[in-house]
Amino acid sequence: MNEQIIHLLRHGAPERPGLLMGRTDGAPTPGGIAGCVRQAESLEFSAIVSSDLRRCALAASAIGGRKGLPVTIDPRWRELDFGDWEGLPVSSVDAGLLAGFWDEPDCNPPPNGERWSALVARIAAAGSALAQSPSLIVTHAGAMRALLAHLCGFDHRQAWAFDIPYGALLSLKVWPGDQPSAQIIGLRT
To answer: Which residues of 9-46 are buried (b: 16+ CB within 10 A; e: fewer)?
Structure first.
């Protein structure tokens, strides 16, 4: 099967940084949107897909307007659901519970939240639904790491070792199929 190029763009800085924002919908800063537009300027792609959350969808819409492309909204590209920790600053979460989550996210998910393996499965399904043409996905750091885990076989520690700041662009060459694989072809922060 033919290779596919996928560009993963993390949304720009939210108006309220430093919070655990999985399903929490927060607006991005104007500078965050502008940074995402700049990252996408030199890219070639024929499809734009975005998480349904505003911090992604607004940047995707701005990019689509510049490129003359429609944006497909897909809620599967959302961040990990942090459950009871949603919207909280990291400093207000019990340190022991948080350490357990970072160490073994499947055994210690956020209370009433999503397991790492569920995020990886959700993102794998979203990735397999992409058109074969070069695509830009405006999404979240956790979703980007989950796709790396799925395509490259990384465990959570390896996937979480990638520094993916706001507005970072990760480009992959993907070989789809029953056992998809990928090669990282670029990471711009």
So the answer is: bbbbbbeeeebbbbbbeeebbeebbebbbebbeebebe
